[in-house]
């Protein structure tokens, strides 16, 4: 808050003569979240913070539901300067193996644990983003992922045998579900509902907020509470764009990203409870899986990550 207060004071002191150009600056924020999703709530919160606190210096405009592109397209558009922010999640593991740590099953226990990981490793994540031309303004959340499908309830890894399961485009998520015996199929989020409806795939895995906002429960018989992976989301800019901003602008955006992370964690916890109840009330078949069995089945993935990824053992 001190940073924002200083920024507002500085903006007022400069006066209209020197702020005309800054007042005209608009920054486009593209994301794949549907209306009602946690992504939409997080991005809207960030935009409201920036637009309300930065004295008219900048306006963040938001575009959800993949209007400006799917995840991989948005990453490319950031570098081309066609989009200013995006909110990638699992796809970051395809940008740099460092982000693959969040593809490891059951590695994050809860949000407090995530904050500790962030505190210990954020420099490493930022360095990996910078090396690939990006800058992490802050973290939000995709959440704890659970499995839906039309074949059978999933209690044990063996229940995934042969299930055609949509996953994000991340190499370690693919390896994990292959290890469990599933047939993982990378696919853009915006294509998943139709693929489920037509039987191209049997199931998918996502946090409750994504499941409910995309209405996957309307075309899926079973929801199995696995909580197998926690994925953060990254409020991301191109490094080139971020570095061109003046230091006050950088500080203001970073402060709003920090505030948005706090908002997101509270909102996500609320959604977990309310959306699960909504799915159950709608008649969905819900079961809780044997997490210990999944952790045991994940040992080969932990070993492979440790062996193949630089620093993976630490």
Explain what this protein looks like in three dimensions.
- There is one protein chain.
- This protein has 12 helices and 13 strands.
- The protein is of the alpha/beta class and 314 residues long.
- The chain folds into 2 domains: 2-97 and 110-141 and 232-271, 3-Layer(aba) Sandwich (D-Maltodextrin-Binding Protein, domain 2); 144-230 and 279-308, D-Maltodextrin-Binding Protein, domain 2 (3-Layer(aba) Sandwich).
- The protein has a 6-stranded mixed β-sheet.
- Mean pLDDT is 90; it is low at 1-23.
Give a quick account of the main beta sheet: strands, pairing sense, barrel closure: 6 strands, mixed
The CATH architecture term of the largest domain is 3-Layer(aba) Sandwich
For the record, what is the CATH homologous superfamily label of the largest domain? Bacterial extracellular solute-binding protein, family 7
Give the CATH level 1 class of the largest domain.
Answer: Alpha Beta
The arrangement of helices and strands along the chain is: HHEHEHEHEEEEHEHEHEEEHHEHH
Number of helices: 12
Please tell me the total number of domains.
Answer: 2
Overall structural class, as computed from helix and strand content, comes to alpha/beta
Helix content: 40-55%
Q: Kindly report the CATH topology of the largest domain.
A: D-Maltodextrin-Binding Protein, domain 2
* Beta-strand fraction estimate: 15-25%
- Rg, nearest Å: 20 Å
Calculate the mean pLDDT score and round it: 90
């Amino acid at each position: 808050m001190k940073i924002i207060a200083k920024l507002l004071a500085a903006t007022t002191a400069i006066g209209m003569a020197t702020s005309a150009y800054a007042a005209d600056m608009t920054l486009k924020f593209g994301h794949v979240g549907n209306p009602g999703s946690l992504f939409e709530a997080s991005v809207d919160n960030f935009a409201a913070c920036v637009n309300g606190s930065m004295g008219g210096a900048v306006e963040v405009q938001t575009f959800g539901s993949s209007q400006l592109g799917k995840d991989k397209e948005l990453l490319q558009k950031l570098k081309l300067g066609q989009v200013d922010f995006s909110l990638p999640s699992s796809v970051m593991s395809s940008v740099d193996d460092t982000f693959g740590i969040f593809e490891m099953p059951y590695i994050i226990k809860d949000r407090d644990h995530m904050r500790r990981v962030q505190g210990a490793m954020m420099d490493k994540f930022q360095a990996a983003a910078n090396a690939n031309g990006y800058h992490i303004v802050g973290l939000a959340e995709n959440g704890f992922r659970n499995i839906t499908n039309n074949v059978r309830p999933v209690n044990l890894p063996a229940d995934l045998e042969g299930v055609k399961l949509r996953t994000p485009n991340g190499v370690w998520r693919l390896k994990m579900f292959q290890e469990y015996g599933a047939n993982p199929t990378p696919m853009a989020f915006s294509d998943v509902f139709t693929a489920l409806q037509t039987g191209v795939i049997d199931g998918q895995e996502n946090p409750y907020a994504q499941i409910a906002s995309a209405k996957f429960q309307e075309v899926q018989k079973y929801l199995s509470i696995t909580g197998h992976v926690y994925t953060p989301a990254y409020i991301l800019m191109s490094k080139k764009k971020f570095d061109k901003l003046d230091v006050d602008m950088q500080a203001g955006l970073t402060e709003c990203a920090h505030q948005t992370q706090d908002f997101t964690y509270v909102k996500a916890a609320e959604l977990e409870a309310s959306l699960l109840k909504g799915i159950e009330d709608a008649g969905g078949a819900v079961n809780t899986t044997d997490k210990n069995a999944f952790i045991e089945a994940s040992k080969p993935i932990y070993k492979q990550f440790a062996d193949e990824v630089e620093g993976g053992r630490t």
